[in-house]
Amino acid sequence: MLQDLSHSDALAALDFQIGIGADEAISDTPIDRYAASVAAAERKRAAAEARPSPVQMPVAQVMPVRQPDADVVAVARAAASAATTLEELRAALESYDHCDLKKGARSLVFSDGRPEARVMIIGEAPGRDEDIQGKPFVGRAGHLLDRMFAAIGMERQAPEAEKAIYITNILPWRPPQNRDPRPEEMAMMKPFVERHVELAQPDLLVLMGNISCQAMLGRRGITRLRGSWSEVLGRPTLPMFHPAYLLRTPSAKREAWADLLDLQARLRSLS
Predict the structure, then answer these.
(1) What does the pLDDT average to over 7-22?
(2) How far, in Å, CA of 88 to CA of 222, rounded?
(3) Collapsing DSSP states into helix, strand and coil, what is residue 194?
(4) Are strands 165-169 and 230-232 parallel, antiparallel or unpaired?
(5) Where are the beta strands (DSSP E) in the chain?
(6) Torsion of Cα atoms, 143 then 221 then 223 then 233, to 10°
């Protein structure tokens, strides 16, 4: 009898049963497992039929037809072209409502420095500090930018236009969480940037970072582009590392210094 077995003998008997495949307890009478599964399926189907059917909504109510968007780039081009001064261009940007970035930004970041400067710097997009103050390059990256150009005798508000710099960005509004600008955002802002250059009339352009190169040159890869002169809107254009990249990668400051010296030499050759 099982109750007469010791604990160790019972465990041994159990191990033996498992070893021969007896791993399921059964009753004294046989059970038709097939019939049981059929009955369970019948119960499940009956329960489903008892539930009320969901209300079918017309397709037009569930998924409204989206109207085609206006040609926002054409609207931007027309608004930018109509501006005859930098003040009018700023007002045109303030009135442009097709860029969703405007809704989440605190400030319109238009420019800083002297508009009559020979060198115009085009950055990427405002960050948190720029959004707060309404000026480009005012955070840590901005302080580094100032030190870089001071090293070749140039600054934002230099008394002489020859030694001044003028700064703007591809986007005038800060993207959420400082994400990269999207292609459609750059496309609708590019007419304003191009008109900005035409009105400021600098001798040289500096494209700071990948986003600026993508927008104005149609190319990315700043490590390959930097230091190589191109032409944008009929002006010599020099891609350079963005100061924010230099803060993350101090070893790249050597290349940035070489680019600054190259920029200084080009300015002298154009004098």
Answers:
(1) 60
(2) 33
(3) helix
(4) unpaired
(5) 112-113, 119-123, 165-169, 204-208, 230-232, 235-240
(6) -70
